Amino acid sequence: MATVSQTGNPIDFYLKWKGADGLIIQIDTDIADKINLGGAVGAKGDKIWCTNAINQWLGSRAGHACTYYILSTFSTETWIAATYSNHKVGYAKGSLKDYEQIPDPQAKLLALGYKGDGGGKLKKSEKQYEQSRYAPRLVDHLGKARVRCKELEKYVSLFS
Fold this sequence. Notes:
The protein is mainly alpha-helical and 160 residues long. The chain has nine helices and two strands; from the N terminus they run H-H-E-H-E-H-H-H-H-H-H.
């Protein structure tokens, strides 16, 4: 069995030890500012900062061939919003191409009648996400959402 000193990288060691082909890490960048690591470059919470922070946290070098980062913002909410037309989420027809640029997708979904927690945020539970307006809607409109969300496309293409 390989040791960390033989591979020089903790990720390489872990992948070889577990017999895995790769490592997928998904983190919402809207909460990534909770990672308190020094030395990461970029604006705290943006994708560049998150990539560097995760690399530092894992003790990995950047661009590891078997590590895939999905760095979305409000991913589930954004991906569900991407199943709706521009008009439904409050934009002029055809004006919004990248739904990951919506500043507050939760507010858009609340305006569409999704259940809130009373504090301006979506009510989130496993039972909630099983309802037809959540995960099943995303599955039914996955092609449209993939075109509108680069990180979703990146995630789905890992399994295609």
